[in-house]
Amino acid sequence: MAEHQKTAAEAGYLLCHCCRLLSRPLPGSVRPRCPRCGAVLHRRKPNSLARTWALTLTAYILYIPANLLPVMTVTMSGRGEPDTILSGVKELIVGGMWPLALLVFFASIVVPVLKLLVMTFLLLSVQFGSSWRPWERTVLYRLTESIGRWSMIDIFVITILVAVVELGALATIEAGAGAVAFGGVVVVTMFAAMSFDPRLIWDRMASKDGEVSSHPGPEAGYWMQQ
């Protein structure tokens, strides 16, 4: 078992959330500020768990109408039928556009669901002070934070179609309420990932076990850098 390694925060250093500068606040400072950008410094993001839980639960709620309500209505020759995300994927498959169907299915259904599940898992692991594989959980968080924005591909497609396909009486495309709800899911989950502080993973592990890791590895370097 590795001995507990002193963190930067324990040594009196704070990381700026804006410019990422690591600095030591002046002794006795009530609200220390970053010497480079002037932002208020915090040892950890304030109320990180509470805010992330609120945003994640909001995304779960929005995800229901995002899949039940139509995201787009295509009207051709006066006739049209609203499409949800799943029905749109089905239409693409029927039309033989398998690559586009897989892209929409992965970006609009798989990625948002996985991101919500990952955020829930990370929140629960920190909430219960889990010491299970902190480095892997940190990497999982970084991946989730970076790929979440690509879920907007469905909204991008609808926006482009609405702007381009303007053929008057021949064909029109209108965005539905489902597109608004889905856009809300993507935006809220992005804010949830931003509000979550991955350093809490290491804090809870250290406070529970008094150790950083059961084996030397890249997680120890991450621990010392934060």
UniProtKB/TrEMBL annotation:
Source taxonomy: Bacteria, Pseudomonadati, Pseudomonadota, Gammaproteobacteria, Methylococcales
Annotated TM spans: 53-77, 97-126, 147-169, 175-196
GO cellular component, as recorded: plasma membrane
Location(s) in or outside the cell: Cell inner membrane
Signal peptide: none
Keywords: Cell inner membrane, Cell membrane, Membrane, Transmembrane, Transmembrane helix
Top-level division of the source organism's lineage: Bacteria
Primary residence: membrane
Protein name from the UniProt record: Paraquat-inducible protein A
Organism from which the protein derives: Methylococcus capsulatus
